[in-house]
Specification:
Beta-lactamase; 3 domains; 5-stranded antiparallel beta sheet; 11% strand; disordered N terminus
């Protein structure tokens, strides 16, 4: 073709008169759309120096004959520079042709006059390298004409310079920190022609100032096919976007974390994410205030006026009683208070007081099983504890011992073939004077023996349920069945026999509280016998009564007119004056402990049922008596035609008053007599009798 440029040869270069004094190669940084390589032709065509110039690129030439693809079958034959075995220090690296889809390189135009000129050659968008850094022995593309219109097989695809270095590893240089370099915004890329580029008219270009650099850096040679030409960023070619994505992801995570911290601090504060320490204990404000003698003292006139109406209720029949101020000991209201009357269960106040005055509060009733006279025989020794429970969880006695515990202790000692029970702790009749056998089926009482289960109740959880007429036999049979022996029989324990098992009741103080709350006659009689044993009296009804009288008399109480035959008040023949009841309660309710009896008797007050709240008063104090609910504590008493109520009340002035009322009436006890007694006690609560 006429316009094709002529490639220079070595001879032409030697005959040239103009030789640059300093052969140099100038590589200018190409723009984004049109990379340009400038270099003096004379330097290219001159005989290369045996001294290797300083390199600005980490690329090293591969040894001759070891470059990849040399002599590969199907590829173009190697081109010689006239030296056998390759040209050391040569600047060619073999035939290079553009790959499919890549623009062709422009040829170099040589001026006829041999003047040193700089040619521009368009290369794909990639970093450039100096020519003298090409591998030795490789033929330069300047020695080979590029004829895109030749026929025949297509040349071998272009090899990137960095692909020719497999024979020798790249020189390792210490990493140097990258300095940010200002990159000018790229001009908008112009559309490129896919056809063969036309040669451009050469003109002497004006030297273009290079952009300022903070530090020269080595530029690795890259291939022509790594980056597309329509780049949207100013990043260097071949640089991956993965670091940018990683950085952006870290920024998003940091932003979310910051937003979370801000939201917590703004809306929840530290308390929303931190566990607060437990709050300090709340200050306790007692609902029951302690009473003192500092309140306004009630007067007899005031109390009499308050009780005039309630005491005149005809449903009460014959009414006796008294009201006393324990702080001063003054009698505020009296009606036949020294006349003996039937107290019914209010007599338990006397038995409880005698127990608190004579027994240790921590004393317990014990039930034992000892070794019998024959091998395999055991004897149950009754210790007077009627609260022993045969069905744990169903007992009406809090803190009761269990038969199962006793059985397990005995079974651990060996097999049992025979069971006996010893009732010698008590003497006398099992039923009190004038007790009726119908009261057993009615649930009021059971024969008093020193060994029984659940107070002789058939249904352990029913306070007023049916009781058995042979509580000791029933309890011994239950024990024998659980240890695997036949039915039990009565017997006697040998003296000094080995103890195989033992269980104990709740303390005496708790037993007293329990017998007062549910008005249990069997438990009361058992306590009376313990008083008798303690005081040296026989453990019987008569011995128990004598022991109670002896203890009360010894502690200064006047028992004139008092006559009773049991400790529970079940007998209708019992007679005591109302004043005796108020005297015992007054000693327990005195505001100070100057009286030595007071400290021992104080638990008697807490053992009294609470109006509308506990025990035998739980369902009472409604209607006209409602103002006394929670303020009245009293022991009830009920027999046929007899009702009694004795206890304490706190009036509206904060003063404690002691009272006892006993009524003998044939009116309906549940709908008339008892409610009338409740109204009298409630009147004391709201009298304001100062």
């Amino acid at each position: 073709m006429p316009d094709d440029p002529q490639w220079p040869t070595e001879d032409d270069d030697i005959d040239s008169e103009v030789v640059p004094s300093e052969p140099t190669v100038q590589v200018s940084r190409p723009s984004v759309d049109q990379p340009t390589m400038r270099f003096p032709l004379a330097a290219v065509l001159a005989t290369p120096s045996t001294q290797e110039p300083l390199r600005s690129s980490p690329v090293r030439s591969a040894p001759n004959g070891s470059r990849p693809g040399s002599g590969a079958p199907g590829g173009p034959p190697p081109v010689s520079n006239g030296h056998a075995g390759g040209n050391p220090g040569g600047k060619s690296h073999g035939p290079i042709a553009p790959e499919v889809g890549q623009p062709r390189a422009l040829p170099v135009r040589v001026e006829p006059n041999g003047e040193q000129r700089t040619a521009e050659m368009s290369v794909p968008h990639a970093k450039t390298a100096r020519v003298d850094q090409l591998p030795d022995g490789d033929q330069s593309w300047f020695d080979q004409p590029v004829r895109p219109d030749r026929q025949g097989p297509r040349p071998e695809p272009t090899k990137r310079v960095d692909q020719l270095q497999t024979a020798a590893p790249p020189r390792q240089e210490p990493p140097r920190p990258e300095q940010p370099r200002p990159v000018p915004p790229p001009p908008r890329p112009e559309p490129r022609q896919e056809s063969r580029p036309e040669p451009r008219q050469e003109s002497r270009p004006e030297p273009r100032p290079e952009p300022p650099r903070q530090e020269p850096r080595d530029l690795p040679v890259t291939g022509y096919d790594e980056e597309p030409e329509d780049r949207l960023t100013t990043d260097e070619p071949g640089k991956s976007r993965k670091p940018l994505i990683v950085v952006l992801s870290l920024l998003v995570v940091a932003a979310l974390a910051g937003a979370t911290v801000y939201a917590v601090n703004e809306f929840g504060g530290t308390a929303a994410v931190e566990t607060r320490p437990p709050a300090p204990p709340a200050a306790v404000q007692p609902l029951v205030k302690a009473v003192t003698a500092g309140g306004p003292a009630p007067t007899a006139a005031g109390v009499q006026q308050a009780l005039a109406g309630p005491a005149g209720n005809g449903a009460l029949g014959t009414l006796t009683g008294s009201v006393i101020d324990p702080a001063s000991g003054a009698a505020l209201w009296q009606r036949g208070d020294t006349t003996p009357a039937t107290p019914a269960s209010s007599l338990k106040i006397l038995t409880a007081a005698a127990a608190l005055l004579s027994l240790e509060k921590t004393d317990q009733l014990s039930t034992k099983v000892v070794q019998g006279a024959e091998p395999g025989t055991v004897v149950i020794v009754g210790g007077g504890d009627p609260t022993l429970s045969g069905a744990p969880g169903r007992s009406v006695y809090p803190g009761a011992a269990t038969l199962d515990d006793l059985v397990n202790q005995v079974k651990a000692k060996g097999p049992v073939t025979k069971v006996q029970f010893d009732l010698s702790r008590y003497v006398g009749e099992p039923l009190g004077p004038q007790w009726e056998s119908a009261d057993i089926a009615g649930g009021s009482v059971a024969p008093i023996v020193p060994f029984m289960l659940d107070g002789g109740r058939v249904d352990q959880a029913n306070v007023n349920g049916v009781r058995t007429g042979s509580p000791a036999q029933a309890a011994a049979d239950a024990f024998a069945q659980r240890v695997g022996a036949p039915g039990a029989t009565a017997g006697s324990a040998p003296q000094g026999a080995q103890v195989l098992g033992e269980v104990k009741s709740a303390p005496v103080e708790q037993l007293v509280d329990n017998m007062m709350q549910i008005s249990d006659n069997v438990l009361t009689e058992a306590v009376a016998r313990e008083i008798a044993i303690k005081t040296g009296n026989e453990p019987s009804f008569a011995g128990g009564v004598k022991a109670v009288r002896d203890v009360l008399t010894k502690n200064g109480f006047d028992l004139t007119g008092a006559s009773f035959v049991d400790g529970s008040g079940l007998s209708a023949s019992n007679k005591i004056p109302a004043k005796l009841l108020t005297d015992v309660l007054t000693a327990a309710a005195e505001p100070t402990l100057d009286d030595p009896r007071t400290a021992k008797l104080r638990p008697l007050l807490t053992a009294l049922p609470v109006a509308g709240g506990s025990g035998t008063l739980a369902g009472r104090y409604t209607g006209s008596a409602a103002q006394g609910k929670g303020w009245v504590r009293a022991k009830t008493g009920t027999l046929t035609g007899v009702n009694a109520l004795a206890g304490v009340v706190v009036d509206v002035d904060g003063r404690v008053l002691v009272f006892s009322f006993m009524s003998a009436s044939d009116r309906n006890p549940e709908t008339e007599v008892r409610p009338a007694l409740d109204v009298m006690a409630a009147a004391l609560r709201g009298c304001g009798c100062s």
